[in-house]
Amino acid sequence: RKCVHCGFCTATCPTYVTLGNELDSPRGRIYLIKDMLENGRPADKEIVTHIDRCLSCLACMTTCPSGVNY
Fold first, then answer.
1. Angle at 54 (CA atoms; ends 10, 63), nearest 5 degrees
2. What residue ranges do the domains of the chain occupy?
3. CA dihedral for 48, 52, 69, 13, sign (positive or negative)
4. 0.90 exceeded by the pTM?
5. Could you give the CA distance from residue 67 to residue 70 in angstroms, rounded to a whole number?
6. 9-23 burial by CB neighbour count: b if 16+ within 10 A, else e?
């Protein structure tokens, strides 16, 4: 809920930098998870693929001005 969707995290996310797909960025993953939770959607294969592409390097946390705990 802290995410203000500024996109600073995208510049430091190796997955987003490599693939260039918004859904492979921390912000994109937040959108996907939020949509699942708010709309009761199950995690389909495409969503799982985007979530699993996170390397858990936490580079996004170093640039997040809102202090989102990814």
1. 35
2. 8-63
3. negative
4. no
5. 9
6. bbebbebbeeeeeeb
